[in-house]
Specification:
Length: 541
């Protein structure tokens, strides 16, 4: 309606109608402003990605809300003491040397004054082995074997140093080459590349077994992903781990099919068991298709080719083959279910909780959500009026207080407190603030109630995925200092060694000692297999 020339000429019903119309317009504008803010955010992300690909600096991220640290109990005030230097405890054997001094005649000996000093010996040694050769009476030639650990023309200590500097030291190939040249090693960049990616099958197998041990014995695992370049294309590196192990896998996709494939930990079979059919029902696959799969009788398929042939035989085809538009891809859902069945068939994630940041591909099995990411959505919400800002801060305050009580519940679970927390969750996330965008966000978070409150049923799981984010930072650093991997072997070795280094740290094993043990360095202490350490940590005391 056109604006009136004078509001005083309007009757009360007309004024009320005008007010209602204006309130509707304000609500529409608020909704549109939220959509504009979301579009601006997407454009900013695309600009940052373009700047990153060009090697330019992107815009700084918004500071985190600090909910986890801010809800920690305050430490009692203590009197500050002067920080003293701790005792020196070298990890190597200590050599005693006596330093003499010329004392005047008549002096009395009063023992020794102890002074500890550590030194690093970095030297290059070239050994020319003269290997005996013998010819037996029957004409066979016998050659003396090389010392254990010597493969190629480089000794185990040099190989250990290269792996340590590149993966844990996060140096680059040219810098590592320059470093070795400066200390006197005659080696080319190509040879160093070979030391990094060739003949590491034993490390790759142990890394795979670490994942299998973790998935078999852990009560929970957390997951995260980040970008990773491979063969000059953008890919995705997925982290799987907890306080016992860390594993990385880089692939070209971040779909749920890819994630379920990673959870199979190297197995390639597809299984139709009770876990698979439960997955299919939860994902809403049509009942006739589920019945068709169940009636076929075959339950295990060796590889993808055999599984796809089985689907074709049952008449279950992908939409792109039929050319018919459908609501759901039956082949994709059926394949996901068969992969989930394979995961359970091998004893992985049988009763474990999978904790994630609410990325869709991770929502499988017994799923829990990160509270820090949930609160971050409220923290990053754009406000345009004082009322909206006040509503946002009020909700954040309620969430912070609720988070404190969840932390207390984890330390002392109680049935009565569990019921109280559930009811309190409803009061927080079903409220209406008058801020349309915030109300929609609260409604979305309330829909995730079961996953956000998984900790009430399983108090042993953490409330956040900070562990995964800390683990995956080494992959982010590698991405920043390197242009990416060019071969599948290079990709797999990068993921394996970074994961093994993180796993060693979680068990108090020095990565240097681990490499020395695996490369058969003379005199190196034996480090037990990492999968055994993961399994031991998983057993009750």
């Amino acid at each position: 309606m056109p604006p009136p020339s004078a509001l005083s000429s309007l009757s009360r019903p007309e004024l009320e109608a005008l007010a209602i119309e204006l309130f509707g317009k304000i609500a529409e504008l608020t909704e549109l402003s939220g959509k504009v803010a979301e579009l601006e955010k997407r454009v900013a992300q695309q600009r940052e990605e373009i700047a990153r690909l060009k090697g330019l600096k992107g815009r700084p991220d918004i500071k985190p809300s600090g909910m986890d640290k801010g809800t920690e109990p305050a430490n009692p005030v203590k009197r500050e003491k002067r920080r003293r230097r701790g005792k020196v405890r070298p990890r190597v054997a200590i050599e005693d040397r006596v330093i003499k001094v010329a004392a005047p005649a008549g002096s009395r000996f009063k023992g020794y004054e102890i002074y500890m000093a550590q030194e690093l010996v970095l030297s290059v040694q070239a050994v020319r082995y003269r290997r005996e050769r013998w010819v037996t009476p029957d004409g066979q030639t016998i050659v003396a074997p090389l010392p254990e650990g010597t493969k190629g023309h480089f000794g185990p200590n040099l190989r250990r140093f290269v792996l340590m500097q590149y993966h844990q030291g996060q140096t680059t190939l040219p810098r590592l080459t320059a470093l070795l040249h400066s200390v006197g090693v005659a080696i080319s960049e190509r040879e160093i590349q070979r030391l990094l990616i060739e003949k590491h099958d034993a490390f790759l197998d142990e890394n795979r077994d670490v994942l299998r041990a973790g998935l078999e014995t852990s009560p929970w695992v957390s997951v995260d992903d980040t970008g990773a370049r491979h063969k000059a294309k953008n890919g995705f590196c997925t982290q799987i781990g907890n306080d016992r192990f860390t594993w990385f896998g880089t692939r070209s996709s971040k779909s749920r099919l890819n994630f379920l494939d990673l959870l199979r930990a190297g197995h390639t079979d597809y299984v139709l068991n009770e876990a698979a059919f439960e997955y299919l029902r939860n994902r809403g696959l049509a009942a006739p298709l589920i019945a068709r799969l169940a009636a076929a009788g075959v339950t295990r398929f060796a590889d993808q080719a055999e599984w796809e042939a089985h689907l074709d035989q049952l008449g279950i085809t992908a939409p792109e083959k039929t050319g018919v538009a459908v609501i759901q891809d039956a082949v994709q859902i059926a394949t996901e279910g068969a992969q989930w069945g394979s995961i359970h068939a091998h004893g992985f994630l049988l009763d474990a909780v999978l904790l994630s940041d609410d990325a869709g591909q991770f929502a499988v099995g017994r799923h829990a959500l990160c509270w820090v990411h949930a609160e971050r959505l409220v923290h990053k919400l754009d406000t345009f009026t004082d009322q909206q800002h006040a509503a946002q801060q009020r909700v954040r305050h309620l969430i912070w207080n609720f988070y404190v009580d969840l932390k207390l519940y984890r330390t002392n679970p109680d049935k009565a407190r569990r019921l109280t927390l559930r009811a309190r969750f409803d009061r927080i996330f079903r409220r209406r603030t008058g801020f349309v965008t915030l109300d929609r966000l609260l409604k979305r978070l309330w829909a995730n109630k079961a996953e956000l409150l998984m900790v009430l049923e399983r108090p042993e799981i953490p409330l956040h995925t900070n562990g995964s984010e800390n683990d995956i930072r080494c992959q982010v650093t590698r991405r920043k200092v390197s242009a990416g991997t060019r071969s599948d072997a290079g990709r797999d070795c990068r993921d394996a060694f970074l994961g093994l280094a993180k796993t060693c740290a979680k068990h108090g094993v020095a990565f240097w000692d681990y490499l020395g043990s695996r490369l058969s360095v003379h005199g190196q202490v034996v480090v037990p297999p990492l999968p055994d350490l993961v399994r031991c940590r998983g057993q009750p005391a």
